[in-house]
Design a protein that fits this description.
The complex is a heterodimer. By secondary structure, chain A is mainly α. Chain A has eight helices and no strands. In chain A, helix 2 runs antiparallel to helix 3, helix 2 (38-75) runs parallel beside helix 5 (136-174) and helix 5 packs across helix 6. The mean pLDDT of chain A is 91. In chain B, the strands form three sheets. A six-stranded mixed β-sheet of chain B has the order 6-7-8-3-11-12, sandwiched between helices. In chain B, helix 6 (164-176) runs parallel beside helix 7 (194-211). In chain B, a hairpin with a 4-residue loop joins strand 9 and strand 10 (239-242). Chain B is α/β, with parallel strands linked by helices. The longest helix of chain B has 18 residues, at 194-211. Chain B has helices at residues 65-72, 95-102, 120-124, 126-130, 135-148, 164-176, 194-211, 222-230, 268-272, 277-283, and strands at 27-35, 40-49, 54-58, 80-85, 88-89, 105-108, 182-186, 215-219, 231-234, 239-242, 252-258, 261-266. The chains are: A mainly alpha, B alpha/beta.
């Protein structure tokens, strides 16, 4: 009995990976093949970009603040609190900004994509769209992927900026250190490869969030309960894959830009 | 398996479509079977829809009527057999090539399947909007088709503010706006009260008799099937009227499914005189 269950689960997993790969490839091809639904792209950009700005801004600001608090406490043991700015800036721009923004946007948008498309599946709206001669992947998925990639890029910049400001707030008003020193250390320590690394990652994360959110939404089965399941799976897997992809992208970029 | 279709004994109707000419069928199923993780839902189904013909697919709930309808426009793919749509084999056709074919078909889903984030206008004009038809022309055509289904007032409404019957009528308007070459109706009166059901059937008869659009209609309601056969649409009186006593519409024929098999294929005359125990039980 257990063997049958393992066998079924393994087959299911392989099938899901195969389906996702085909789906992701088709959605990727549509990114540069006409027709591109620009209106849908703009609507989704507004939903994803403008809609997520408050959570990205707050999470970025307080992450920067926490980084400054923690690093100052550790660095003070070596008399090196002056490098707090450098620590916060590099950590935010290279790692925490892109990953945290990805996870926050995933929680908000992968779930909304999965539930929206899942509801459309269970109410036969997706079938209706296909019956009307419109490709749901081209009409619904591609604009979301396109919008998510481009908006995550800018949201990451916002998160980085507010993270550095959060660090500055803690450094100046709570640790009572010099603000100019904080900013000059942050600025001087940054190199182009750091910024590049931070801006390449959201491109992957954006693709992961939208493709997984739409994938689970479009394969929803089992009515409203199925929509709930699809939403959970979309958030869980997109968050996990953002971190997994971050690991590999970091490895590759570190190999390219040896610092 | 299925009964042989015999020529109707009835006289021709005074109005409505002329007898279907002997041309190639609009839709043809040849030994089609499909299963979903279990026993087959449909087994060796073969039938065709000729130009100008309305085929009513009868059967109890859960016998695969909606599945058959989705196979007809390639929304599902058969495991075995072939399906010809407008003369093209679609059972193995890539999805990309199916989209242009589907624009020639109108489909009315069981619950309407209207896009809930769009207004009635945008739902009805969905295909026209995708084809980038000018807004002025869209407005004219949407008003025209909404007046055909008697819902001109609802043009700016969202589906959530419509009743079940109104949603079905909007769905019919959406399916018919481009004057399709084939109409597929999936239980268009399911779950509706008798008065609203009659309104929907009247619209289907109107579409059949005014535009002579071939159709495949799925239903488990016998009274709807018989109404389709015994009534016609009078354009002068703008109303559905009964055919004279003893007359039926010869272009409206029946199919019946039971446990995934096609057990009947014939006219209303064949249906009411069938000796098949399941058909008898269904009729009685």
């Amino acid at each position: 009995m257990a063997t049958i269950s393992i066998d079924r689960t393994a087959k299911q997993l392989v099938l899901t990976i195969q389906e996702y790969s085909l789906f992701a490839w088709r959605a990727f091809q549509n990114l540069y093949r006409p027709p591109i639904y620009w209106t849908d792209f703009l609507i989704q950009s507004d939903v994803i970009g403008f809609g997520s700005i408050s959570i990205v801004l707050l999470s970025g600001f307080f992450t920067g603040g926490v980084l400054a608090l923690q690093s100052a406490a550790t660095l003070s043991a070596f008399g090196a609190t002056a490098v707090t700015g450098r620590f916060v800036a590099i950590t935010m721009i290279r790692e925490l900004g892109p990953v945290l923004t990805g996870v926050m946007v995933s929680g908000r948008n992968a779930s909304s994509m999965a539930s929206e498309l899942g509801s459309m599946v269970v109410t036969e709206q997706i079938d209706a769209m296909r019956a009307l001669g419109v490709d749901p992947i081209r009409k619904l998925v591609t604009p979301r992927i396109f919008a998510c990639i481009s908006m995550l890029f800018f949201l990451t910049i916002v998160a980085d900026a507010f993270g550095i400001m959060g660090g500055a707030f803690v450094t100046i008003f709570m640790n009572h250190q010099d603000g100019t020193q904080y900013f000059s250390m942050a600025w001087e320590s940054l190199r182009w490869p750091d910024i590049l690394q931070g801006l390449v990652k959201p491109l992957f994360s954006g693709y992961i969030i939208a493709s997984i959110g739409c994938f689970y939404g479009l394969r929803t089965t089992g009515g409203t309960q199925g929509v709930g399941r699809a939403t959970i799976q979309a958030v869980v897997w997109s968050s996990v894959f953002i971190i997994v992809a971050d690991f590999f992208v970091t490895q590759i970029l570190l190999a390219i830009f040896v610092t | 398996m299925s009964e042989t279709q015999v020529p109707s004994q009835d006289d021709s109707p005074p109005a409505g479509p002329v007898a279907a000419p002997h041309t190639s069928p609009v839709l043809a199923f040849n030994y089609v079977s499909i299963a979903f993780d279990g026993p087959p839902v449909l087994k060796n189904i073969s039938f065709s829809v000729a130009p100008g013909e309305t085929r009513v697919l009868l059967g109890p709930a859960g016998v695969g009527k909606s599945v058959l309808l989705k196979l007809a426009n390639g929304l599902l793919r058969p495991d075995k057999g072939s399906i010809q749509l407008f003369g093209e084999e679609i059972s193995s056709m890539p999805e990309e090539q199916l989209f242009p074919l589907r624009t020639r078909i109108g489909m009315v889903f069981q619950e309407g399947a209207l896009f809930d984030s769009l207004t009635v206008r945008d739902n009805v004009a969905y295909q026209l909007i995708q084809e980038e038809v000018p807004d002025d022309e869209i407005d004219v055509r949407v008003r025209q088709i909404l007046s055909f289904v008697g819902l001109e007032r609802t043009i700016d409404f969202y589906p959530s503010s419509l009743s079940g019957g109104m949603k079905r009528r909007v769905a019919i308007a959406r399916a018919a706006i481009r004057q399709p070459e084939l109409l597929l109706y999936d239980s268009p009166t399911g779950g509706l009260d008798p008065i609203t059901s009659t309104t929907i059937i009247e619209l289907i008869i109107k579409e059949r008799d005014v535009h002579q659009t071939p159709a495949l209609l799925v239903t488990h309601r016998l009274q709807d099937a018989f109404t389709l056969c015994t009534h016609y649409y009078d354009q002068e009186k703008a109303a559905m009227l009964p055919l004279p006593e003893g007359q039926t519409n010869t272009n409206t024929t029946f199919l019946m499914l039971d446990e995934g098999r096609l057990i009947f294929d014939g006219t209303i005359h064949d249906l009411v005189h069938s000796q098949d125990p399941f058909v008898r039980e269904f009729l009685e």
